[in-house]
């Protein structure tokens, strides 16, 4: 019976590459300062021998776990049903995978979940956190700060304590909303309604402000509150038609809301775009291209936002490793990505 071959050691890689053990350690752990030619010899020896670094020992050297917590301040039923989150998580996952980092997904639904997430982050299991879909008065930012982990937020923060020393990635929600309403007005529509998102989130509040930038004198009855879901869009659209039957356009706060509004308009016998023009926000292709008719909407790069969040976090972590002589520049405190209006058949 043959015995299992012993695992290759760091010393064996050093001997095969003809370099010191310290040089192998620096290359394996991603440290700077090793000449390209030597680093290539080490990588070739690692591949030839099938060397696999000991993660526990590696963590002692780099003080890194190669794991990042992704915290969504939403219940799992919302996260797994809304294609927005799928696109954002896809972008985050792609960037983390490209840098050999693991994604640890944490969801929150109640106070017990917030406490659990706080304990996990404070326990030193991950190198940093990506946090998105925050609501006003959400305890998560405070828990994250108490845990002391580097963090990048998805969405413009609106802290009660006035802090502005945070890194975040967001889209130009207000400007995108303005472009949507300007487009509707340019079509000659005069009774433009708005279905908001949940106004305890900055993205929804900013889109409402963008609507008001263009329609400052809008009848308050033309604004109905939604919740970023198709069901919320249906309820709000019925409410709007009941109190303002003469409306001729709708700006919906996201594509799911617009999809729900379109279903109600069809039920009520309103032709789109002849009777009522509709514009959404997000440009989530599984939604926007499959509505009837296909949805005119404001595009934001959701997957790109996720990738950028992860990239900024990893850049910050690279600045804190022991070998920081060639560390990258610090991340900007906030990045606002542009939006564009995508013309389809609803407006």
Q: Summarize this, please?
A:
With 347 residues, the protein is α/β, with parallel strands linked by helices.
Please give a structural write-up.
This protein is α/β, with parallel strands linked by helices and 347 residues long. The chain has 14 helices and twelve strands. The protein has a six-stranded parallel β-sheet, sandwiched between helices. A six-stranded mixed β-sheet has the order 7-6-8-9-10-12, sandwiched between helices. Helix 10 links the parallel strand 6 and strand 7. Helix 6 packs parallel to helix 14 and helix 11 packs across helix 12. The longest helix is centred in the C-terminal third of the chain and has 17 residues. The termini are far apart.
What secondary-structure arrangement, pairings included, does this model have?
Layout: H1 10-17, H2 21-28, H3 36-49, H4 55-62, E1 67-72, H5 76-81, H6 83-98, E2 102-107, H7 111-122, E3 128-132, H8 140-147, E4 151-154, E5 167-171, H9 173-186, E6 192-195, H10 202-214, E7 223-224, H11 230-243, E8 249-252, H12 255-267, E9 277-282, H13 285-288, E10 296-299, H14 302-318, E11 334-337, E12 340-342
Parallel strand pairs: 1-2, 1-3, 3-4, 4-5, 5-11, 6-7, 6-8, 8-9, 9-10
Antiparallel strand pairs: 10-12
Helix pairs in contact: 1-2, 1-3, 2-3, 6-14, 7-8, 9-10, 11-12
């Amino acid at each position: 019976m043959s015995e299992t071959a012993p695992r290759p050691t760091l010393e064996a890689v050093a001997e095969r590459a003809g370099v010191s053990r310290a040089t192998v350690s620096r290359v394996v752990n991603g440290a700077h300062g090793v000449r390209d030619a030597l680093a290539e010899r080490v990588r070739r020896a690692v591949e030839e021998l099938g060397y696999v670094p000991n993660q526990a020992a590696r963590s002692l050297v780099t003080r890194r776990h190669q794991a990042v917590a992704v915290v969504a301040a939403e219940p799992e039923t919302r996260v797994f049903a809304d294609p927005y989150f799928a696109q954002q998580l896809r972008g985050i996952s792609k960037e983390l995978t490209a840098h050999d980092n693991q994604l640890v997904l944490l969801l929150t639904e109640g106070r017990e979940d917030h406490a659990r997430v706080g304990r996990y982050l404070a326990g030193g299991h991950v190198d940093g956190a990506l946090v998105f879909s925050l609501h006003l008065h959400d305890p998560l930012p405070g828990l994250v700060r108490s845990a002391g982990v580097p963090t990048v937020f998805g969405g413009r923060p609106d802290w009660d304590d006035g802090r502005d020393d945070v890194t975040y990635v967001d889209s130009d929600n207000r400007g995108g909303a303005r472009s949507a309403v300007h487009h509707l007005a340019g079509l000659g529509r005069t009774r433009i309604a708005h279905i908001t998102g949940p106004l305890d989130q900055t993205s929804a509040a900013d889109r409402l402000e963008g609507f008001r930038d263009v329609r400052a004198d809008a009848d308050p009855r033309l604004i109905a509150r939604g919740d970023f879901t198709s069901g919320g869009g249906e309820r709000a659209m019925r409410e709007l038609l009941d109190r303002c039957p003469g409306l001729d356009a709708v700006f919906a706060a996201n594509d799911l809301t617009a999809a729900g509004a379109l279903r109600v308009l069809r039920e009520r016998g309103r032709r789109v775009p002849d009777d009522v023009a509709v514009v959404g926000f997000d440009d989530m292709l599984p939604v926007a291209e499959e509505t009837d008719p296909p949805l005119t909407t404001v595009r934001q790069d959701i997957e790109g936002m996720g990738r950028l969040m992860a990239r900024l976090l990893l850049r910050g972590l690279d600045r804190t490793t022991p070998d920081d002589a060639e560390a990258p520049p610090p991340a900007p405190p906030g990045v606002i990505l542009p939006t564009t209006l995508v013309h389809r058949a609803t407006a």
